[in-house]
Design brief:
There is one protein chain. By secondary structure, this protein is an alpha/beta fold. Helix content is 46%, strand content 10%. The chain is built from 11 helices and 6 strands. Helix 10 links the parallel strand 5 and strand 6. It starts with 9 loop residues before the first strand and ends with a helix. The chain binds magnesium ion (MG). The site of magnesium ion has 9 residues, from loops.
C-alpha cells in the first residue's frame, strides 16, 4: 500500500462509526422513532443512510411512506425525538483504535478536521473529553453548517476551506458508503474503514481509495506510515 499520508496536510474525519461506536444505537433510535409514526422500516437500512442529515433521512422515509416530503419544522421535531432515544440507549463508546489513528495523523503533521452530518449534541459536546486537544475549536463541519449533507460533496468541500488546503493535500476518513461518495465527489483521497455490518463491496462500489477491515488495522497502518515520513 502506498503511504497515503505523504504530501497531505489535512485529514477530514467523520464522527459516527469512526470516532464513536455509535451506529448500532443510531439505527435503533431511528427505527423506534419512525415506527411510532407508522412508517415501516428495518434497522439495517439506516446503515445505508448514514452520513445524510437527519432532515434528509426523514424526508426520504416520508417520500417512501406518504408520497411527499416532511415539513422542515416537523422534521426538526422528529429529529429531536430521535436524538432523545439515542441518548437513552446508553453511554457513548469511543471507537477502539480511533485514538491511535488520530495520534498517527497528528504525528504525520496533518490538521484534523471533523466533518459529520450529525447535529447530535450528546456526541459533539463529548469530543473534547474523549479526544482531548485533537479538534481545535472551529475545526468542525456539522449537520447544521451545510445546505446539502453527504453524499453531496459540500461537507467535505467546507472541510477543505477550513483547513485551507486543496483536495490533493487532504484525505477523508469514512465508515459509510454515502460518506465515501461525498469524499470522492469532493475530489479527495478517501479512506474507508469497516466498523459495522456494511460489506466491503459497498465501499468498492463507491470507489474508496483504500479499504481497511477494522479501526485497529487502520490505526496500526497509519502509525507505521507516520513514522516513515
Ligand atoms: Mg460515519
Amino acid at each position: 500500500m502506498e503511504n497515503f499520508l505523504i504530501g497531505r496536510r489535512a485529514a477530514l474525519i467523520d464522527m459516527d462509526g469512526v470516532l464513536y461506536d455509535s451506529m448500532k444505537y443510531h439505527t435503533l433510535a431511528w427505527q423506534r422513532m419512525m415506527s411510532e409514526l407508522g412508517v415501516e422500516c428495518s434497522r439495517d437500512e439506516f446503515y445505508l443512510y448514514e452520513g445524510m442529515t437527519g432532515a434528509a433521512t426523514i424526508d426520504l422515509l416520508y417520500q417512501r411512506a406518504f408520497g411527499h416530503g416532511c415539513d422542515p419544522e416537523e422534521a426538526k421535531r422528529l429529529y429531536a425525538i430521535k436524538s432523545e432515544y439515542f441518548k437513552e440507549f446508553g453511554e457513548r463508546e469511543p471507537m477502539s483504535g480511533a485514538d491511535m489513528m488520530l495520534a498517527a495523523l497528528g504525528e504525520a503533521g496533518l490538521q484534523r478536521i471533523l466533518v459529520t452530518g450529525s447535529s447530535q449534541l450528546s456526541l459533539l459536546d463529548s469530543l473534547e473529553a474523549d479526544y482531548p486537544g485533537v479538534f481545535v475549536p472551529g475545526n468542525r463541519v456539522t449537520g447544521g453548517d451545510v445546505t446539502h449533507g453527504k453524499p453531496h460533496p459540500e461537507p467535505y468541500l467546507r472541510g477543505l476551506e477550513i483547513a485551507g488546503v486543496p483536495a490533493s493535500e487532504a484525505i477523508v476518513i469514512e465508515n459509510a458508503p454515502l460518506g465515501v461518495r461525498a469524499g470522492k465527489a469532493a475530489g479527495i483521497f478517501t479512506v474507508a474503514i469497516t466498523t459495522g455490518p456494511i460489506p466491503r463491496g459497498e465501499f468498492e462500489k463507491e470507489r474508496a481509495d483504500v479499504i481497511f477491515s477494522s479501526m485497529p488495522e487502520a490505526a496500526e497502518v497509519m502509525m507505521k506510515m507516520a513514522k516513515e515520513i
